[in-house]
Specification:
Elements lengths: L1 E4 L5 H13 L3 E6 L4 E6 L3 H4 L9 E5 L19 E3 L2 E3 L5 E5 L6 H14 L3 E3 L17 H14 L2 E5 L6 H7 L2 E4 L7 H9 L4 E4 L6 H13 L5 E5 L17 H8 L4 E3 L1 H5 L5 H10 L4 E5 L17 H17 L5
Parallel strand pairs: 7-8, 7-14, 8-9, 9-10, 10-11, 11-12, 12-13, 13-14
Antiparallel strand pairs: 1-3, 1-4, 2-3, 5-6
Helix pairs in contact: 3-4, 3-11, 6-7, 10-11
The structure holds phosphoenolpyruvate and manganese (II) ion.
Amino acid sequence: MIIVLKQGAKQSDIDHISEKLREMGLKVHVSEGEERTIIGAIGDERILRETPLEADPAVEKILPILKPFKLASRDFRRENSRIRVGEQVVGDKKIAIMAGPCTVESREGLLTVAKAVRKAGGGFLRGGAFKPRSSPYSFQGLGEEGLKYLAEAREETGLKVVTELMDPRDAEMVFNYADIIQIGARNMSNFTLLKEVGKLRKPVLLKRGLSATVKELLMSAEYILDEGNHEVILCERGIRTFENDTRNTLDLSAVPLIKGMSHLPVIVDPSHAVGRSDLVPPMCMAAVTAGADGLLVEVHENPQEAFCDGPQSLTIEVFNDLMTRLRTLAEVMGRTL
Ligand code: PEP
Ligand code: MN
């Protein structure tokens, strides 16, 4: 149920209505928009029918949200959500560029890539310290040592760090090093993990599952929002189809589709979608054209030697060239880079 307050409703109105709802045993989420404040009340909505909240002078109307995701929906928040990460913002005019190796391999390699990403104008450094590998015999990541290298690269370059959390038992550790906590495609439906990051006060990058619908992605986001963490960034990273010349199929229609259904920012990861470095730049351009709020791109100082996902990783040179082209496109699209 959402309670739309009248324009000009005061903080004291928001407080007393929220208090009333809590007394009824409902969970309260307040969304303060530019024009109106909306209060989301989650729980047994039958209780609301018995209470004449509509008569409250600060209330304009009460609407049911019939969707299985509520806080993630556009009904709950009409404006686009902007996620602040230090001086960077995801969901704004500026396209958020998150780039770096698939996995953190060495201090030197990571620093080389981080400096290149910074120089090219990127804002975020990506890199996994805990890797969800399909085979248990593949390199599993450096763990905390990798997180330390990421933190050092942040110190050195000012880039914000995006890194994956796989296990709720590592939540505190990853929280201490990351600026954005990534939940990988394979964990999109790990509801225990989603609830755990929902309790943290740090932005979460939630990737779409390999075979998940957009609705399922939004329901997973809802798990995080419902725990009180409203800083969720969604990521389209390709879905499984019968096509096998690409690793997955990049579902670019998901970008405008999600934008219509939800207020959350959406970024695109063409690297894991196509699995081939030659297809990454054109798909980055297409993603921005489709309205993506940012890009997650794998870049490696020497892709041929990469421990993980070398074939889809861009060289620094190709990444630089891509950034130049993205800058021109951004201008045409009324965006910045
Ligand atoms: C990654 O970004 O490092 C990754 C493993 O991607 P995905 O979860 O989308 O496969
Ligand atoms: Mn990868």
